[in-house]
Structure formats: structure tokens, C-alpha cells
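Figure 6 in text form: structure in, sequence out.
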């Protein structure tokens, strides 16, 4: 069975447990026995004095992009400071009564998933305010197989945002501790950083091989199928096609009121995926309370599936097949209230909508090049832990 970084830490019983510790976490972060990290550390005698929470809040129930407030954790009775509220980074005041910071939040291996960028702000705060930072690492659920990483790489000059600050692939095939080591050096942050790797993880394996149930990492990432499809279907946020939020299968279905089920099954056909036509009525989000039609994607295998490429191709085919209905859309959030240029921010490429005006064959070859992230393997290699 996998031993997460927190399991390793508790077994070590370190002397620093008596320091005043701030823990950056959420309810999806547990031991391998499914006990919340905050509670497990308190039971083990760690002197936690406050909690910081990312997007979706400590309870992982906040809606996507919605500002989260400070509060009190009902489980531990510790104060909770939101890092997706009035500020994205711990302030000097927040850290005045803290001797060290511990970070433990599960990730899904996708650049536009915001927990990584919360980590970068914590890393910078640790450096700015001279606080040691310990990252308790976790496996990447969609694997650390670098042959499966996918671009685009992010253009920092034009596309840096809270869903992608710095230049890494869209699907990066790394753990958060590996990326923290990479950024701490390459961005000259130079924080007092320690990472505690997890144990018994083969980086080429996917979450079902861990021997531990998948815990939802956010309201819309509820299982490994959604996590695997998310790097591609997450791009639907920038369109008027529903990615399934407000229905029972977010990031596993693609639906709208104007798509014909039979036509859509033919254009959505992809290798390694089984498709089922579906009718849903979302209770919130795009097309709330409207009957929607489309397809449910089920992966037959995880080992070769390139989610980003297939997601881009899917959007192109829908756009071309339904030109009278398809539209690009804004996506307002706490960090981008106007919601503009959302596709550029997701993909990390400026003027990215222009790609979708290419003829299909030219689009396919262009996207193969855009998604090619083989150079990342050499760049990240010195920072790999597994």
C-alpha cells in the first residue's frame, strides 16, 4: 500500500513537532487510513496552530472559482485562513505566530488545477518571511509517467494567471513536491524547503493501483475517470458546451441542449474510450434545468490516453459540426472576475481560439506539435523524487 508523506512523517516522530506549525491542507488530504491530515497530526502530537485552505475551502465543497472565507475548522477547532479569498498568499501577519509551514494537498497532475499555484504562493511566502516549509508529498493520480505528459507549455508573458503562473506542460506528470523543488531553484525563490516523499509508489502507475479509494479532490473531480479526462475536458470551460458540472458525472460527460446524440457519438469516437449516449438535466451551471444531450466517456485503458490532444480535437469537431450553436465563453472566477481570455489561460497560449479556424487536418497536425512536451522530461529530471 502507498504511504503518503504524512504517514512517513508521523512514523518519524520528529523533534520539530513541538514548533508552532501552520498546515496548508484540505479534507481530501488524508493518511493512507483515510484520516484527515490535520486530525492525524494533532493526534500524533504536532503543535498545529492554524490551517490554510485552497480553492474549494477546507471541506472541498466550495464551488469552482467562488471566493472562500476564513473560518473555524469544526473538526480541530483551529482557525482557517483562506488562500482563495481576499489574498492568495499567506501574509506576514498570518505567519507572525508560526515557526514553520507544512503543506499537504492532493493534486491531479494538471496545470490549470489551482492547488499547485497555491503551493507556489506559499513557497514564496515561506522565503519572504523566513519560515521553513515542509511538503508532504503524494502520488500523481494520473501517473508520473513522463511519456504521457502533454503541452502546451505556458507562455508566461501573455498567459500567466492563477490557473497557470509558470512555464510547465498542461499535463506535467509530476508530484507537487517535485514541482516545488523545480520552482524553488528555477524561479530563484530559495525558500528553506524540505520535501518528504511518499513510499511504495511506482510513478508509472495510476491511482487504482495504490490500494486506496479515490477521494474527491474537488467537487467536480470525483473519481479517477474524471481525473484522467480532466486535462482535456477541462478545456470545455472556455466554451458553451457543458463539461457536466451540475450533473452527476462532471468531466466525464459532454452535453448541451443542441447536440444530437447520434451525430455526437460519431464525432466523439476516439481510441481507448467507450462512449454512451446520455441525457441529463443539470441543476446548476451551464444549461441549468434544461434537458441536455451528449455522450458519457469511459476510459478502457489509462496507459496511452492523451487527454489534452483528444480534448482539443473534440472541441474542434463540435465547433465545425455545430457552427450555428458553438460559442467561446467567458469564465468568471474570484481571480478573474471578468472571465476573459479563458481558453488562453487554460492552454497557456495567446490567441488560442485562432487554432480552431484551421482546416481539420491542419488542426490535427498543429495540435500534435503543440501537445508535444518531450523536452520537459530533460528539464524536470534533476528534480524527480521517484
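Output sequence:
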Amino acid at each position: 500500500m502507498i504511504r503518503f508523506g504524512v504517514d512517513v512523517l508521523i512514523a518519524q516522530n520528529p523533534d520539530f513537532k513541538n514548533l508552532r506549525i501552520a498546515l496548508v491542507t484540505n479534507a481530501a488530504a488524508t493518511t493512507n487510513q483515510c484520516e484527515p491530515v490535520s486530525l492525524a497530526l494533532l493526534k500524533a502530537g504536532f503543535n498545529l496552530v492554524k490551517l490554510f485552505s485552497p480553492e474549494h475551502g477546507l471541506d472541498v465543497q466550495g464551488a469552482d472559482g467562488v471566493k472562500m472565507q476564513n473560518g473555524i475548522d469544526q473538526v480541530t477547532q483551529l482557525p482557517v485562513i483562506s488562500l482563495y479569498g481576499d489574498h492568495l498568499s499567506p501574509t506576514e501577519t498570518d505567519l507572525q505566530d508560526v515557526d514553520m509551514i507544512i503543506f499537504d494537498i492532493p493534486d491531479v497532475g494538471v496545470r490549470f488545477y489551482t492547488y499547485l499555484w497555491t503551493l507556489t504562493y506559499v513557497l514564496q511566502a515561506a522565503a519572504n518571511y523566513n519560515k521553513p516549509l515542509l511538503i508532504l508529498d503524494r502520488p500523481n493520480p494520473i501517473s508520473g509517467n513522463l511519456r504521457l505528459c502533454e503541452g502546451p507549455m505556458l507562455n508566461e508573458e501573455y498567459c500567466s494567471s492563477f490557473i497557470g503562473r509558470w512555464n510547465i506542460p498542461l499535463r506535467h506528470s509530476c508530484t507537487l513536491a517535485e514541482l516545488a523543488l523545480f520552482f524553488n531553484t528555477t524561479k530563484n525563490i530559495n525558500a528553506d524547503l524540505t520535501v518528504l516523499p511518499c513510499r511504495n509508489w511506482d510513478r508509472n502507475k495510476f491511482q487504482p493501483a495504490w490500494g486506496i479509494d479515490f477521494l474527491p479532490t474537488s467537487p467536480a473531480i470525483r473519481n479517477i475517470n474524471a481525473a484522467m479526462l480532466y486535462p482535456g475536458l477541462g478545456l470545455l470551460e472556455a466554451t458553451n458546451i457543458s463539461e457536466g458540472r451540475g450533473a452527476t458525472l462532471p468531466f466525464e460527460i459532454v452535453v448541451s441542449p443542441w447536440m444530437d446524440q447520434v451525430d455526437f457519438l460519431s464525432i466523439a469516437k476516439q481510441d481507448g474510450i467507450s462512449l454512451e449516449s446520455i441525457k441529463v438535466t443539470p441543476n446548476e451551471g451551464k444549461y441549468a434545468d434544461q434537458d441536455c444531450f451528449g455522450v458519457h466517456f469511459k476510459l478502457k485503458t489509462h496507459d496511452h490516453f492523451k487527454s489534452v490532444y483528444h480534448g482539443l480535437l473534440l472541441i474542434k469537431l463540435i465547433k465545425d459540426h455545430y457552427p450555428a450553436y458553438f460559442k467561446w465563453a467567458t469564465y468568471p472566477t474570484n481571480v478573474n472576475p471578468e472571465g476573459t481570455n479563458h481558453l488562453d489561460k487554460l492552454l497557456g497560449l495567446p490567441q488560442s481560439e485562432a487554432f480552431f479556424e484551421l482546416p481539420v487536418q491542419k488542426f490535427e497536425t498543429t495540435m500534435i506539435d503543440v501537445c508535444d512536451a518531450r523536452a520537459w522530461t530533460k528539464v524536470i529530471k534533476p528534480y524527480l523524487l521517484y
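Caption detail: The longest strand covers residues 273-280.
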